[in-house]
Specification:
single chain; 639 residues; alpha/beta; 8-stranded mixed sheet; 5-stranded parallel sheet; 13 strands; disordered C terminus; binds adenosine-5'-triphosphate; binds magnesium ion
C-alpha cells in the first residue's frame, strides 16, 4: 500500500512529510493511534478523526503485499515549479561551525516548509540549501500560479528575519508548464522543461527577489506589481526567454479586474438577469431593500454581471461598497470588511497608524458614526485607541457583537444619504464572522434603500433563501447561439471556420470563461483542435482532483466523449484495467467514422501521459470490438 497515495485520496496530503519523517509505512499505519497522530503533528481534531476512520476501514480491505509496492501512476499535470535557494550559503558554511550551519539550514527548511504548506504547495525535495516546491501537485488549486507567487514573496520576506546572528537572504525562481509526475521516475520527480527553467531563473534572481517565467506571469494577470526583466539567455534553454520580477501584490482588489479586466468583449445574452437586477434596484432605492444572490459555477459570469450592473447605474446617484472574500483569508475574521474600509478610507502602504486613524475618522464621520463605533472599528483595523473615541471595556463576545453593530450602523448612516449598492463577492470563501455580519445585513436591509448583491459558487449553500427580500439568481450556461456569438466576439475580426466554432461551442459547454480561453488558444496556436488552454488547466485539474475516487472514470469518460451509455458499470472500473470487459462497460454510441475520429482527437488532446492515452485507446478499441460483436458472431455462424 502506498501511504502518500492513501493520504492523497483522503485530501490530507499535507501530512505526507510528517508520516515520512516518522517512518509511518503500510505496516505501521493500521496500528496508529490518536496519540501517535498527535505526536506526528496532526493537530486538527477533524483530521485525526478522518485518519482514524480511514485506518479502521483499512482493516476490512485485503492486505497488500509488501513485495509489490504501488507507485502513484504517472500523470501529465500542469505545475508551477518553484526553486528557493539560500544566497551565499557556500561562504557561510566555510565560515561557520558545521553545527551552527546545520542549525541555520534546519531553521531555513522549517520556515520554507511552513510557508509553502500555508499556501497549499508541496515540498518535493530539499537539496542542501535549495528547495524544490510544486504547486499543482498532489492536488491542484485553480490559482496555483498565484499561490506560488505569493509564497515566493513571503519566503524572500521571511528568510532575512530568521536569525539575528547572520544575514540571510533567499532567492526564488518559478515557471509553469506541463510535466509528467509519478510513475517510473524517482518519487515526486517530474519530467519536463519546467523545473529546469525554474532553476535557471532562480539562479539569476537577485537576493530577496522572486523571478517568474512568462508562463507564470501570464497566469497571474494584474494580481501583482512586476518589473519586466526583458529577454534573457539561459544556459541549456534554446533562445531567449522573458522573465519578470514579482514585486508585491497589486492594488487591484477585484480578482475579476485583475485576471479578466483587460479587453472585455461585449456582454452576450443575460438580458433577463440584468433586467431582474434593475427591477430589484428600482425597489431598493425607494426603501424596499433587496438582496440578490447570484450563484453559478466558476467562470459562468457572476462578476461580469455585477460589472455590467455597475455600468448601467453609472449615471444614477448612489454609493457602491465592494467586499471581496479571498481564499487566502478564510481564517481572518471580517477580512472583506476590513479590506473595504481600508480602501474606502484611502490607506496607503506607508501610512503610519496615526495617519490611518485620521483617514478612518474622516470616512466614518460621513455616516455620522458615534465615538464608540469609531473606537470599535479602529480596533478592528488594529489602529490604536485614542482619547476622542476610547474602546469600551467589553468581553470578547460582547465586543464582537458591538463591532458588527457598528458596521451595520455605518451602512445605515450611508443609506440615509443615498441609495447604496453593496457587492459581496465570492461568499464561498467567507470567514465565519463575516458570515454572521452578512446574516445581520440581509435582515436589516429590508427597510433600507440598499441593494445587496452576493456572488457565490454552488458549494456555498446560502441560508437566506425564502426570505421575502431575497432573490436567488442561478446563472445557467450559454445556449448554442450565444456560445457562437461569444466565440466570434473573442476572435475579433478574425474569421473562424464554422466547424471550429461548433467544436469550441461543443467542448466548452456554454461556460463563458471556457469559451473565451479555448477560442484564444485556437487563435494563438492556429490549429483547429488544441488541448486544454494553460489558463484553464489549474481550475479543471482542481475540479478533477476533488473528485478523487471517481477521477479515473472521469478521465476515461473525457476521452470517450459524452454520448456514452453507462448502463452496466463494472465494479472494477475505478481501478481500470485494459480488459475488454471493464472497458466495454463504457460503450459509447459512436456510429460514424467521423465520430470515431472525433473520439481519437479528444484522446490525443487530453492532458494525459502516454500510458493513460493507451488505456483510453484500449477502451475505444474494446468498445468498437463490442459494437461489432453481433455482426462478427453472425458471420461466424454463416461460415
Ligand atoms: N455573458 C457574457 N458575455 C460575454 N462574456 C462573458 C459573459 N459572462 C462571462 N463572460 C466572461 O467570462 C469570463 C468569466 O466570467 P466571470 O469572471 O464573471 O465568472 P465568475 O462566475 O465570476 O467566476 P468565478 O467564480 O471564478 O468568480 C470573464 O472574462 C467574463 O468577462
Ligand atoms: Mg467572479
Amino acid at each position: 500500500m502506498d501511504v502518500p497515495e492513501w493520504l492523497r485520496t483522503l485530501g490530507l496530503e499535507q501530512y505526507e512529510p510528517a508520516f515520512r519523517a516518522n517512518d509511518v509505512d503500510a505496516q505501521v499505519l493500521p496500528r496508529l493511534t490518536a496519540e501517535d497522530l498527535i505526536s506526528i503533528g496532526v493537530a486538527s481534531v477533524g483530521h485525526r478523526r478522518l485518519l482514524l476512520d480511514a485506518i479502521a476501514a483499512l482493516g476490512t480491505e485485503a492486505p497488500v503485499s509488501r513485495d509489490t509496492p504501488m507507485r502513484p501512476e504517472a500523470e501529465r499535470r500542469q505545475l508551477t515549479v518553484m526553486f528557493c535557494d539560500l544566497v551565499g550559503s557556500t561562504p557561510l558554511s566555510a565560515r561557520l561551525d558545521p553545527e551552527d550551519m546545520r542549525g541555520i539550514i534546519g531553521a531555513y527548511h522549517r520556515c520554507v516548509a511552513e510557508i509553502v504548506e500555508g499556501f497549499g504547495g508541496f515540498v518535493a525535495r530539499y537539496m542542501g540549501d535549495g528547495v524544490l516546491v510544486y504547486f499543482g501537485y498532489p492536488s491542484a488549486h485553480e490559482d496555483d500560479a498565484e499561490r506560488a507567487t505569493r509564497c515566493g514573496l513571503a519566503l524572500v520576506d521571511r528568510v532575512p528575519q530568521l536569525t539575528q546572528a547572520e544575514e540571510l537572504h533567499a532567492r526564488v525562481g518559478m515557471a509553469t508548464g506541463l510535466v509528467v509526475v509519478g510513475g517510473e521516475v524517482v518519487e515526486h520527480d517530474v519530467a519536463g522543461d519546467t523545473p529546469n527553467l525554474a532553476a535557471r531563473l532562480q539562479a539569476l534572481a537577485e537576493p530577496d527577489t522572486v523571478v517568474l517565467a512568462a508562463s507564470t506571469r501570464r497566469l497571474t494577470g494584474e494580481l501583482f506589481e512586476y518589473r519586466d526583466l526583458g529577454e534573457i539567455e539561459l544556459k541549456g534553454i534554446d533562445g531567449p526567454v522573458s522573465a519578470w520580477q514579482a514585486i508585491r501584490p497589486s492594488a487591484v482588489v477585484s480578482r475579476f479586474e485583475a485576471l479578466r479586466g483587460s479587453a472585455l468583449t461585449s456582454l452576450v445574452g443575460r438580458d433577463e438577469e440584468i433586467d431582474l437586477l434593475l427591477r430589484r434596484w428600482a425597489r431598493a432605492k425607494v426603501g424596499d431593500g433587496q438582496v440578490v444572490l447570484i450563484s453559478g459555477e466558476p467562470g459562468i459570469g457572476k462578476s461580469r454581471i455585477v460589472a455590467v450592473l455597475a455600468e448601467r447605474l453609472r449615471d444614477e446617484p448612489h454609493l457602491r461598497l465592494r467586499h471581496f472574500c479571498s481564499p487566502y483569508h478564510q481564517d481572518s475574521a471580517l477580512y472583506p470588511f476590513i479590506d473595504q474600509l481600508g480602501r474606502a478610507a484611502g490607506f496607503s502602504r506607508d501610512d503610519p497608524p496615526q495617519a490611518k486613524l485620521e483617514k478612518l475618522e474622516a470616512l466614518l464621520a460621513r455616516a455620522a458614526a458615534t465615538n464608540e463605533d469609531v473606537g470599535l472599528v479602529a480596533d478592528l483595523l488594529s489602529l490604536p485607541a485614542s482619547e476622542r473615541h476610547p474602546l469600551p471595556n467589553l468581553s470578547p463576545q460582547r465586543k464582537k457583537e458591538q463591532t458588527l453593530e457598528a458596521l451595520i450602523h455605518q451602512l445605515e448612516g450611508l443609506a440615509r444619504q443615498q441609495p447604496v449598492v453593496v457587492v459581496f463577492e465570492d461568499a464561498h470563501w467567507i470567514d465565519p464572522t463575516s458570515r454572521e455580519l452578512l446574516d445581520l445585513t440581509v435582515e436589516r436591509v429590508r427597510d433600507l434603500p440598499v441593494l445587496l448583491i452576493v456572488t457565490l459558487r454552488p458549494e456555498f449553500q446560502p441560508p437566506w433563501t425564502g426570505q421575502p427580500q431575497v432573490t436567488m439568481l442561478a446563472l445557467s450556461r450559454l445556449d448554442r447561439h450565444d456560445r457562437a456569438v461569444l466565440v466570434e466576439q473573442v476572435a475579433g475580426g478574425k474569421s473562424l471556420p464554422s466547424d471550429v466554432i461548433e467544436q469550441i461551442a461543443d467542448r466548452t459547454d456554454g461556460v463563458p470563461l471556457f469559451i473565451e480561453e479555448l477560442t484564444k488558444s485556437v487563435l494563438e496556436s492556429g490549429v483547429p483542435a488544441v488541448g486544454i488552454p494553460t489558463t484553464l488547466h489549474d481550475s479543471l485539474m482542481a475540479r478533477l482532483d476533488r473528485l478523487s475516487t471517481v477521477r479515473r472514470v472521469a478521465q476515461i469518460g473525457a476521452a470517450i466523449g459524452r454520448p456514452m451509455r453507462f448502463s452496466a458499470p463494472s465494479p472494477a472500473f475505478p481501478k481500470m484495467s485494459c480488459e475488454p470487459c471493464s472497458a466495454g462497460s463504457l460503450l459509447p454510441n459512436w456510429s460514424s467514422s467521423a465520430a470515431t475520429h472525433r473520439m481519437r482527437s479528444t484522446v490525443s488532446s487530453t492532458p494525459w501521459c502516454r500510458t493513460q492515452r493507451m488505456i483510453a485507446y484500449c477502451a475505444m478499441s474494446a468498445s468498437n470490438f463490442m459494437r461489432r460483436l453481433p455482426k462478427l458472431s453472425k458471420l461466424i455462424h454463416q461460415s
